[in-house]
Design a protein that fits this description.
alpha+beta, YojJ-like (1, 2 domains, 7-stranded mixed sheet, 11 helices
């Protein structure tokens, strides 16, 4: 009965600010869950929640030693999360920052955007036909200065010929990624972080793992051409989709760029809806 009375008193004393407080906290927990639900950290969080449940249970049952061990585990566990899952925490904070501080679209002029995408798609299609491996990154809101510093900065007008020439085998810049910023080719020969996701297809090589890795740590659009098969792939938000044709790739790149910063059409929902249609 005491619990019932406490709940009744809390409801009676509730104000509009209490409701707002509950809604804000609920939203934060929901967004936190969505951000980590597909990462390795999610499994650790479930383990910590189980420990939090067992601590009061062990105290009620007078399991002194178990209670002591569980409390020390929680203390160490919080520090372990920060150390072990630093990449995931960084990615979550970057996603929160991109959501909280909406920047101007990198290519406001849709005609210019379509022109750049046409150049990229044409180059990728030609590279695919000759089975020339390539990674082309289209920078979005997350700036990639650190990645550019690992390669050679170029700052050149984009053309299919230029992109194709970069990835010709045995040329100085072929074994790395090319980065497009706004309507310019900003850098080439850049080294990318490999994904830490161990659930991806074991047949995928280093090029695809690097593409997934950079898409996990940024909101970039990453186009990949396989050196072994010539298959065209696209990595977005840590997800890889494959077997693109020239028309199919152009269509999805334009649709993502046009709708990316629409308040009513978040990128995640757009990509998920598109992927569902592709599977049908």
């Amino acid at each position: 009965m005491d619990i019932v009375n406490i709940v009744i008193d809390a409801v009676k004393n509730m104000t509009i600010w209490s409701v707002i407080d509950i809604l804000v906290v609920s939203y934060i927990f929901y967004k936190g869950y969505m951000l980590i639900s597909e990462t390795r950290a999610f499994q650790l969080v479930k383990g910590l929640l189980l420990i939090l449940i067992l601590i009061p249970v062990s105290s009620i049952l007078h399991l002194t030693m178990l209670n002591w061990i569980l409390q020390r585990t929680i203390t160490i566990g919080v520090l372990s999360i920060v150390i072990i899952f630093q990449p995931e925490i960084r990615r979550v904070l970057e996603q929160i920052g991109r959501t909280a501080f909406n920047e101007v679209h990198i290519m406001e002029n849709e005609e210019k955007m379509e022109e750049i995408i046409n150049h990229v798609v044409t180059a990728v299609d030609n590279l695919s036909k000759t089975k020339t491996g390539a990674i082309i990154i289209i920078e979005q809101k997350t700036k990639m200065e650190e990645i550019m510093n690992t390669g050679t900065k170029i700052d050149a007008a984009i053309s299919p010929d230029l992109l194709e020439n970069i990835f010709v085998v045995n040329t100085p810049l072929h074994d790395g990624a090319a980065i497009i910023r706004n309507d310019r080719l900003a850098a080439a020969g850049c080294f990318l972080p490999l994904t830490t996701n161990y659930d991806i297809n074991k047949k995928l090589g280093t090029r695809h793992r690097a593409a997934i890795g950079i898409s996990e740590n940024s909101d970039a659009l990453v186009v990949i051409v396989s050196e072994e098969t010539g298959i065209i792939s696209l990595a977005v938000n840590g997800k890889l989709t494959r077997n693109y044709t020239k028309e199919k790739l152009k269509d999805i790149l334009i649709r993502i760029n046009v709708t990316r910063f629409s308040k009513n059409n978040p990128l995640n929902e757009k990509v998920k809806a598109w992927r569902k249609r592709e599977k049908k």
